[in-house]
Amino acid sequence: MREILAMEEDFPERLREIPDSPKCIYLIGNLPEKKEPTVGIIGARNGTEYGKKVALSLARELVAYGIGIVSGMAYGIDSAAHRGALEGGGKTYAVLGSGADVCYPAVNQKLYEEIAKTGGIISEYAPGAPPLPHHFVERNRLIAGLSDVLIVVEARERSGTFITVDRALEQGKQVFAVPGRISDALSKGCNKLLMEGAGICLSQADILHCFSIEAGEKKQAEIHLNEEENRVYQALRLDGKHIDCLAKELKMSVEKLYPILIGLELSGYCESKGNTYSRRSL
Fold first, then answer.
1. Per the database record, which ranges form the Smf/DprA SLOG domain (predicted)?
2. φ, ψ at 74 (rounded to 5°)
3. Going by C-beta distance under 8 Å and a sequence separation of 6 or more, which residues neighbour residue 95?
4. Which of 71, 171, 206, 260 has the most C-beta neighbours closer than 10 Å?
5. DSSP codes, 48-105
6. What are the pLDDT digits (tens) for 43-61?
7. At what angle do helices 161-170 and 188-195 cross, to 10 degrees?
8. pLDDT (average), residues 98-102
9. Could you report the per-residue pLDDT of 133-153, keeping only the tens digit for each?
10. Is the pLDDT of residue 267 over 90?
11. Long-range CB pairs of 227-234, under 8 A, 24+ apart, other chains included
12. Alpha carbon of 230 to those of 34, 152, 191, 250, 257: distances in Å?
């Protein structure tokens, strides 16, 4: 673990420029490089399977363009974003509300270790510091500071996620939200952000535009589907299939199939019109 003081050359410029900049940070692994584009992906700790699938897919696609993913390693959306970045072979950075040597939540120990290998674990709190409630409020400004762009995937109308959003806006960052169904409690926060002027995130292309990157100009190898995703992809046809037909053919519930299809669509493997999904040639 390294301690990096604000006066040192290695202290990240992104954090040096924010209000209430930390006097030092503790680091396991690496910081984002100065010219490395970064995207923060945040959302509800009790995110739905759909929300977690969207976060994972967005992160997995974005790292293919050399973009680093920043989040807080919390349950739900945060963890899904980190996993997506790792699955895509990219870099991801976790900003903790505890000491950098304290994995919280403990169930994320394996994820914590994987992040440290290729990305970085970052904290402003001294080694051994416990995960206190006010630490998470304070660390949100660092998540915003390390992110060039911020995406909110799922959030309640009154959510701690908005603390990070407010800090990002104060820092002049662009904020995006993933829209959701008006009847879903975890979509109300995102839909509210969209009403207030946040950018709409329907796929990675909406985010790539912020960095003047065109979809298709990937800097890394093409992403491969896992076994379950490939099974669904192979069942699709160019002229489309209704989701109910796919569910029956694959002997899979619509509830399980839907987030897989959303992930495939976000990754550019299929497209939808209503409840009909069409395969795209790779």
1. 5-210
2. -75, 170
3. 70, 71, 72, 73, 122, 123, 139, 142, 143, 146
4. 71
5. -HHHHHHHHHHHHHHHTTT-EEEE---TTHHHHHHHHHHHTT--EEEE-SS-TTS-SS
6. 999 999 999 999 999 999 9
7. 20
8. 98
9. 999 999 999 999 999 999 999
10. no
11. 228/260, 229/260, 229/263, 229/264, 229/269, 232/257, 232/260, 232/261, 232/264, 233/264, 233/269, 233/270, 233/279
12. 36, 27, 32, 12, 12
What's the pTM value of the predicted model, to 2 decimals? Answer: 0.79
- The pLDDT tens digits of the residues spanning 202-238 come to 999 999 999 988 776 655 434 567 888 888 988 888 7
Helix axes 77-87, 109-118, angle to 10 degrees: 50
Give the span between the Cα atoms of 109 and 122, in whole angstroms.
Answer: 15
Both structure tokens of 186: 């975890």
Residues, the chain: 282
Q: Which two tokens stand for residue 108?
A: 């994320």
Domains in the chain with CATH codes? 2-211 (3.40.50.450), 227-279 (1.10.10.10)
Tell me which residue has tokens 């950098």: 100
